[in-house]
Amino acid sequence: MHGYLGASVIWSEILARLGGRYRCIAIDARGTGDGARPREGYTIDRWAGDVLAVADALGVGRFCYVAHSMAGLTGYRLAIEHPGRLTRLILTCPSPAGPPRAGRAAFAPFRAAWAAGDAASMSELLASTSVALPDASVTSQRGRLAISAAAGHVDALLDDSAGIDLRPRPRRDPHPDAPGPGGGRPGPDGRAGRLLRCSLTRRWR
Amino acid sequence: MSGVGHVPPLERPAAFADAVGRFLAEGVVTFRTLAERHAPQPRQAP
């Protein structure tokens, strides 16, 4: 799974090398590449649901999830909430599990190029994140694909990812009046979020 | 994969595919397993 402003094209050379040994499936996230461009659903949770939906549609029960960058957040979600579906989790340059992350300000130039429909500038920006790219055609292709991304992918997904915090928290003996699990009141960030972090802590410890 | 930017699948596809293949074949690779793999072998008694 590709990352923010990406598309399945980034895996083309990988598929050529691994396709003979494994069944490889490269997905365009909603709002990118050749994927559908619905008006809503640009969240990490929905992204994870889309991955499972594709697997279900293809009759794939358990799979190794290989992801780059922001799609790493989707990987964390899958590992926490659907560990039975994964055989492996391979994340390269994944987004951190919690803040601080590069936020809107860091992506402002990308969003400006997208808003202007400036594929050339987008290509240069994307290339600037890499030390070396195989050839200019791939770079320009990435630029064109990024420009064609849906607004929901460019903005809503970025906002959603900024609010996610899956970092394990240090264990403490819960005070009877403390919020969250062990206490009587839900925490300020919600019980579900605490349970997710506890689950992450247990599973990867 | 040193000397790689933010997009290793594009920048070093051969190395990346090799790493993925090894991971799938060998399971979890940690610093410990790497250290054990590259640890000096005990010398044979003369």
Give a short summary of the structure:
Chain A has 205 residues and is mainly alpha-helical. Chain A has 8 helices and 2 strands.
Features:
heterodimer, A: 205 residues, mainly alpha, Rossmann fold, disordered C terminus, B: 46 residues, 3 helices, 54% helix
The proportion of residues forming helix of chain A, as a percent range, comes to 40-55%
Q: How many strands in all of chain A? A: 2
Structural class of chain B: mainly alpha
Multimeric status of the protein: heterodimer
The end-to-end distance of chain B, rounded to whole angstroms, is: 39 Å
> What is the overall number of helices of chain A?
8
Principal-axis shape of chain A equals globular
Please provide a written account of the structure.
The complex is a heterodimer of chains A (205) and B (46). With 205 residues, chain A is mainly alpha-helical. Chain A has a single domain (8-167), classed as Rossmann fold. Chain A is built from eight helices and two strands. Chain A has helices spanning 12-18, 44-57, 71-81, 104-116, 119-127, 136-147, 151-162, 191-204, and strands at 63-68, 86-92. Chain A has a two-stranded parallel ribbon. In chain A, helix 4 (104-116) packs antiparallel against helix 5. The longest helix of chain A has 14 residues, at 44-57. Chain A is globular, with a radius of gyration of 19 Å. Chain B has a domain at 8-37. Chain B has three helices and no strands. Chain B has helices at 8-11, 13-26, 31-37. The N and C termini of chain B lie far apart (39 Å). Chain A binds chain B through residues 10-11, 13-14, 17-18, 21-22, 64, 66, 68-69, 88, 90, 92-93, 129-134, 138, and chain B through 3-14, 16-17, 20-21, 23-24.
